[in-house]
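Class prep. Protein, please:
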Amino acid sequence: MFKNKIFILIVSILIAITLILTAAFVLWNFMEKNNQSQDPAGQAQDAVASVKPTKPPTAEEIKANTAFVKDILTNLSGGGNFIKLSLAFELENSKGKTEFDSLLDSAVKGTIVQTLADMTSEQVQGSKGNDLLTSTLMNKLNPMLHEGKIRQIWITDKVLQ
């Protein structure tokens, strides 16, 4: 009888500890999600901050690790507007550029067209529109890359009609 009470007491304590640890884990994850930035510009800054600092690349390295996407023409959301866009993607290393080039015709162009289809002409106008577009693209494309990350996206040509 005495052993049975001790066993029940130990099991109760273990269950209580497990519940406390589970509640702490859920609370920790909830607070981590709240601390993450919700706007695309903040998320892009967080992604850039996670890139390992190295020596500044030379102009030749930047040129070698830059991929170009030219003349994407697609409709924008909310009306009869369309945009023609050319972009330059600066990647952090040659492995990242190789991986990016292999995804260029499928995932990268598809993501660009999908992102533009969700945006209105007012959202892509001006320098704030350029920042919103490039940060949104960076947030969507960087998770696809495993060998290197996108360091910078440049809008090299843009026509909004």
Summary: The longest strand covers residues 150-160. The chain has a mean pLDDT of 88.
